[in-house]
Design brief:
CATH class of the domain at 487-659: Alpha Beta
Helix content: over 70%
Distance between the termini: 63 Å
Shape: elongated
CATH architecture of the domain at 487-659: 2-Layer Sandwich
Strand order of the largest sheet: 2-4-5-7-6
CATH superfamily of the domain at 487-659: Histidine kinase-like ATPase, C-terminal domain
Radius of gyration: 47 Å
Order of helices and strands: HHHHHHHHHHHHHHHHHHHEHEEHEEHEE
Oligomer: single chain
Length: 661
């Protein structure tokens, strides 16, 4: 037993030496983490701190901080639009996640990889990254990440012309949505509508956009959804419906944040009016064109130019050629072959020269070749994706078996280590508990008798005190009886009776306390009934009845029993003296109860009531003054009413006795 404390001391010193060695490095890591995550620092400083955190966490092999560092470096570089740097750390993150077999981290890595590749116009590589990310996200039931990546995949598929693929991705994404993910549901539904529209499936497109309107949380989103719905109607030549929807969207133009959306709505409304009736809509199209030019909205300007080309095509060829030239210039500025080809198609119709026709043919061939190459690469990605899914399924099964075996082995090691440590700790605490209990038993044994003796002594002294007070009250009562025999005057007799009643209320308390083990309280029913019955005997008026309503288990604290007794004495005495003249029959009712915080005393009679000119503030009445004064001294509430007799309501707090002045 003596060697056990020595062993514990050795373990303590060993652990302390390890902790002191690592303390300095821990401070550095905490400082780097604080700077990397604190938004008060500049992004540049946070990037440097994240690099430092990555270096320190690698040195100490802290996996959680390494993954956090990679994620921070991806996010911070992305905020500065340094997508190449963000992509570099994203690849490192994916490699680290694969090394640690952390599927959740792999999902985050592939999502970011797809995002950064898309931002650098590597669309097909981005699609491939999202495809890998979705496979991992589904494997760990990460529905939120699955829905987000399928959203981006459907956008890419719409952009490259795979509208059926976009429908499939968007529909699949909607299946994985959670209730809280409204943003993804909005984007997926919008992509679904675009894909249906491009496939000329206008019925499903209309249904998608009607749902999109309901999902819109802002005026901006609602306006975009209404614009898309109106375009579906326009493409079906349902011009009245389209015009109505465009007009509805423009009604809320004051609440739409982006001017580009308002210009798009005006331009589309103007073009629809032109399609319905050839001479309408020009003012709206020209206004939208001017505003888009001022805002440098090049894509919007191109759309306006195409609409104006169509408007002037039969009316004014010069104007049509002018807007065609503007459209070609914008297409070149945006480096968009598709826009350039569309503008050239109009120019060929307006000025069918050999040079323009040759340029159109060459550009068209180039675009078709590029699209063919893209589609081939895209098909290859889809094929590889299917192969990967099969391989991943097999690998997943094999990996699961290996991981299960490793987990079992690690579990056995951990159970042994924890068991050994637990035995040491339990043994130490048992020894400590044994020592403490032995000491406590000795102390308790010595103090128990002392406390018992003190308790008995206090109880004896308290009972002796109450007994002497009872005897003193009895002596005072005796002298009052002698005085009543000497003074036969009725007025003196009444005053002496009142004094006896007041003393009797205090006498009754001490009489009860002498008989009780617990001297901190008195029984409310016994105490109040005794007081009221004594007053009834003094005045001997059988036509007046007492009605006492008190629960037999109700108690009053000793401190508040004196004022409550005096208040009851004063009111009941006054009722007997003044409430029922000429032997009038009546009832004096006493109700006493309590809640968790207060005592409630309600006393009333159905006598003649108070005089009409009664004013409690100017009245000179010993009884009423006593009741009011006692209520105020004990922080109570006092309410006196005279309607069909007199009603007194007193509320006294149970626990404010110590503050009585």
């Amino acid at each position: 037993m003596k060697t056990f404390p020595v062993f514990i001391l050795f373990v303590f010193l060993f652990l302390k030496s390890i902790i002191s060695v690592g303390q300095n490095n821990s401070d550095k890591i905490l400082d780097a983490y604080y700077q990397a995550t604190n938004t008060e620092f500049t992004i540049k400083n946070r990037i440097e701190a994240s690099k430092n955190l990555l270096s320190l966490s690698k040195e100490k092999s802290v996996d959680s901080l390494m993954s956090k560092s990679y994620l921070l470096l991806c996010s911070l570089n992305s905020k500065q639009q340094q997508y190449d740097s963000a992509y570099y750390y994203c690849k490192k993150l994916i490699g680290f996640a694969r090394q640690k077999k952390d599927t959740s981290l792999l999902v985050k890595g592939f999502f970011r990889k797809g995002f950064y590749l898309d931002k650098t116009f590597k669309t097909l590589k981005a699609f491939d990254a999202y495809t890998n990310g979705v496979a991992y996200a589904i494997a760990i039931n990460d529905s939120v990440s699955t829905a987000r990546m399928l959203t981006n995949m459907s956008i890419i598929q719409n952009n490259i012309g795979d509208f059926y693929g976009a429908q499939e991705s968007a529909t699949k994404g909607l299946v994985f949505l959670t209730k809280e993910n409204n943003k993804s549901e909005y984007l997926l539904t919008n992509n679904l509508g675009i894909a249906f529209t491009n496939c000329k499936d206008y019925k499903n497109a209309e249904a998608a956009y009607l749902k999109l309107i309901k999902l819109s949380k802002t005026s901006q989103n609602k306006a975009s959804a209404l614009n898309n719905l109106a375009n579906v109607y326009r493409k079906q030549e349902k011009y009245k419906k389209a015009i109505a929807v465009f007009s509805e969207a423009l009604k809320d133009s004051a609440t739409i944040d982006q001017a580009s959306t308002i210009n798009r709505l005006k331009d589309n409304l103007g073009y629809t009016l032109f399609q319905q009736t050839e001479n309408n809509g020009l003012d709206l199209m020209l206004e939208a064109h001017r505003n888009r030019t001022l805002l440098d909205d090049y894509e919007g300007q191109f759309a306006s130019n195409i609409h104006l080309i169509n408007y002037y095509f039969q009316k004014d060829q010069k104007q049509s050629i002018r807007y065609t030239s503007q459209a070609i210039g914008i297409a070149k500025k945006l480096k968009s072959p598709d826009m350039h080809l569309e503008a050239l198609s109009y120019l060929i119709k307006l000025q069918p020269t050999a040079i323009i026709t040759t340029a159109y043919v060459l550009l068209n061939d180039s675009i078709n070749n590029a699209k063919s190459l893209t589609q081939n690469k895209y098909a290859g990605i889809l094929y590889k994706t299917e192969e990967k899914e099969i391989q991943n399924l097999k690998l997943k099964q094999l990996t699961a078996a290996q991981e299960l075996k490793i987990e079992k082995e690690n579990l056995r090691k951990w159970i042994f280590a924890i068991g050994l440590l637990t035995v040491i700790i339990i043994a130490f605490f048992i020894w400590r508990k044994y020592q403490a209990e032995a000491k406590a038993k000795r102390t308790i044994s010595l103090q128990k008798d002392k406390i018992e003796k003190q308790k008995n002594r206090v109880e004896e002294l308290q009972k002796e005190l109450h007994h002497r007070l009872k005897n003193n009250f009895s002596m005072i009562n005796f002298f009052i009886d002698l005085a009543k025999g000497k003074f036969k005057d009725k007025a003196y007799q009444e005053k002496l009776n009142e004094l006896q009643n007041r003393i009797g209320s205090m006498f009754s308390i001490h009489t009860q306390l002498i008989k009780k083990e617990d001297i901190t309280s008195v029984n409310a029913f016994t105490y109040i009934s005794s007081l009221a019955n004594k007053i009834e005997q003094v005045y001997d008026q059988p036509f007046i009845k007492l009605a006492i309503s008190i629960n037999e288990n109700e108690v009053i604290s000793t401190e508040l029993s004196f004022p409550i007794g005096l208040i009851i004495n004063e009111f009941v005495t006054n009722s007997y003296k003044y409430a029922f003249p000429d032997d009038k029959e009546g009832i004096i009712a006493i109700d006493f109860h309590s809640d968790t915080e207060n005592y409630h005393l309600n006393i009333s009679d159905n006598g003649i009531g108070l005089p009409d000119d009664f004013d409690i503030n100017t009245l000179s009445s010993f009884g009423i003054d006593t009741i009011k004064l006692l209520s105020e001294q004990y922080h109570g509430k006092f309410q006196l009413n005279s309607a069909q007799g007199v009603q007194l309501k007193i509320t006294l707090p149970k626990y404010s006795v110590g503050s009585v002045q």
